Amino acid sequence: MEKHRGTGREANAYERVLAEDRRVVRGTFRVSVGGAHAGLAVTVLVVSLFAVVGGALWALVVSGVVAFACVAALFLVVHRGRRGSAAVTRAYLLTFGWARWL
Questions:
Q1: Residue from 42, 89, 94 nearest 72 by CA
Q2: pTM assigned to the model
């Protein structure tokens, strides 16, 4: 491929800026198992709060929604090609990994 003085340099600078932006976005949305554990703890706390304030029915509704989200995440992960414990770990991170942003 022939290099042009102005065009090649502009494209490379543009690609470097895009790569840096992608790296920042990946770092922002990165989740960890520790963050997922914190998300699970917050979820258990919220379900317990619903049980105390709203009764057992509301606690069942909220926990059912969380269970549905976990099963949907597991289905999505398995559909995308992960298997076994890697699929369960990824579904756990997808379901409860939001706590890092609190």
A1: 94
A2: 0.71
